[in-house]
């Protein structure tokens, strides 16, 4: 992968964009390996993800060439950090964390886990088996503000690209969310927008649904309303009580979150308003 | 199937119910082929569906024996109508209706379609190809009351076991629903409880979900809140605009509705409050 | 769609192909709406499907420009027939045929069904409901050669783009297949390459599989060995006997075949050796 | 669960078996919580799995009562070992092992892992993080006989209920298989019976399939031909090269194997010839 170049562009739509982009790339002696584009016709936006073989002689020049020849205010990103830095936030449930730590240990995560932060120490022993620092930041006997300040202070030094809420069961304030804009990734244990909020499996049980699901999404100020990255579902039937639903749900949750992390670490997700463009 | 007996029981849970039921069935010289039971522990309810080989010498006696030996107010149904009578309600969309009519024509529906009733005449020509009576009951220039009275008057003479709303796009009043209690089956074009109400695909598009679905359910007074029978989903991505979602959704809708009809016509669905027990 | 241009290219891979293609398209004043490409690295082949807005002033010139500037022997196709002509071959089973005829009737098939040809008359009445000519070409009391000659003579006048074997249960000779190269599409009632040949559901039952499937594929000389277009599967369990498997399988078969037809009629399938590139 | 009784019965089919079983259970003052039965009509066999609340005063007497009142040679098992003992066999791939060890560590496996045995030491460090003994039994410089003898000698002292081949890449001899009859569980990295044998992903790539899968099955003398317990599939497309297929496949493999172990540890799998009855 070291002699490849990844280019991400997001701009106003216009005539001839693919040709412009391809032309500039060729001018810089790069060869397009794969190109995925999308035009959001409602918002007149153009998105493209290009993988090229070869490395530009002058990345800054390529960037400048692209910016000057694309619509004003185009966002051009050339070779964003290859290995993203992650901080994982947890409470007591292990399934998502364990899945991520195992992938990290065997080097299939394509990201570097810098730390795990929990509001309990439940998962400390397990985390430390994998030589990852674990910080216990309890929310007890603290105001929300104090708790979140301590949380931010713990996270900040690691300068993470993404903060993964791997079943972190505290609702974060708008102030905290603003501090880590577009970096907070959550796994919600339902098929959003169904069963927003607490106890989704209890809600699902009461409603008598025949399918449950999980959703990985960016965190925004509105609870469970951020841009969705990945969703999956599983058929169930009347014989599932709440504990059965929770058990079945955990399998989906960990698969969905790990897949979302995979997409993010490969820079396959682009944001447009409250939606995502995902180039799988 | 003619020398088989189907027994459905629903009652308060109690110790020894399976043994009692099996004992009484054996006493009447029937042999159990399959037996599916479920205990709703929250509501202390017992449900069982038994298929026996053989026909009871005296069905009334078997019924009496079961009722006397099961908890008070047990609902016992022996050989409910083998071939259900259906009336189908439609508006303009053909996909669900066509799927049902084709199954009916080739005798794989296990039910008898008595009539199709539409509030437009759009689907009349198609319906009549299959020699099924089509009634056009327009809602135009009528009060809701008048329209529903005419609808009921059209349906009533057919004495249907189920009235299938195969993309019938009018909201029915509580009075109408009460008239056909537990007989109205609807296909809703979303994965309920997500996107209740109008334009679910538009809602799904705006929310940026990565999965769409459909739900077949009993109709109750609360819009899209009745007991769910079948649900299915399909993965989508950012490239689906609203018309694409509608097209993809129709495939799910017709499959879900046909499967729900199949379950109902084989008496595999039992109601408990706002939920269903489905013995697949 | 009338002011769009579809361009399909298949050629040896080379440096700068996307740029070349995009440049030529821009030169002819077309704007790229979507572009999907694929490089088969094993065979050094490049495939691209481009949808442009606008119509070229001179299609022949655009074709020439592309051919001259792409690697030798590039296959360039501009605006292949928008509405494909289909002939459907059947035996006695109705489910795939009915699904296709209904879509055709309601104009959602994006293709024109010219005729249905069956080796029995079982499906004649149904076909004729939709005003499609039905030809009964019996195989009885004929040599394979005679039968296939009559079949070919019946099909040929319609000049179909594709001949869809919608549960046509006769094995076709290499000579017949050669006559309609890359035009014969079959639905096989198993998840190929499992259960090649006759009675796949019986084979699946005996093997005790927990999933069944169906495969839509091009027909080549080797039985059930042609390039695969679409496959789907469904979970089953020990309680399915052979008739249950057949019934469940039919639902998959019709969905898979209809989806394959949809892909073909939108020119989303390209052939490379014994495999397909499918730009969904 | 401690005051529940699990009863598994497998016998020739006969009239009145459910009634007999239910009657005897009631006589011993147990209450049926769930009862799942299956009649294999082809082989005239009856299978039932009953969960009762309560514990029999005399288990031996209950066993005797059942055996005496059921067809000759009925296999009756009352409360088989609640927590199965497992030995895991591995080679170099970690994904299935890790999934199992994590579940074990967090006590969601419902089984006790006694040891991991590998023919390389690749997974030793990881295994030992979880305080599970790891035995490296190399196959190098040994005859197959010697290797398998050493393997058996390593496994035997643990008296496992099941030996799980979690991507163990050596083919076992009939002699070895005979030694552990009905105890060897394998995960095969394809959707059996497609792609039996080596390099299934390479085979799948060459065939151009649109779906891949994995199969958990009992090991018998015929390679990849044993009774199937669980299968799952995943859609893929032309863009997957062999390494992509392997990566995608691993996610299915670990999910399938863990689900099979779950079913086995809850005594939900019964064997009938080369097939399984699975009471999910």
UniProtKB/TrEMBL annotation, chains A, B, C, D:
SUPFAM superfamilies: ACT-like, Formyltransferase. Its EC number is 3.5.1.10. It catalyses: (6R)-10-formyltetrahydrofolate + H2O = (6S)-5,6,7,8-tetrahydrofolate + formate + H(+). Pathway: Purine metabolism; IMP biosynthesis via de novo pathway; formate from 10-formyl-5,6,7,8-tetrahydrofolate: step 1/1. One of its GO terms (biological process) is 'de novo' IMP biosynthetic process. Residues 6-85 form the ACT domain. It is an enzyme of class 3 (hydrolase). The active site is at 224. The keyword Hydrolase applies. Keywords: Hydrolase, One-carbon metabolism, Purine biosynthesis. It comes from the Bacteria. GO terms for molecular function: formyltetrahydrofolate deformylase activity. Catalyzes the hydrolysis of 10-formyltetrahydrofolate (formyl-FH4) to formate and tetrahydrofolate (FH4). Belongs to the PurU family. This is Formyltetrahydrofolate deformylase.
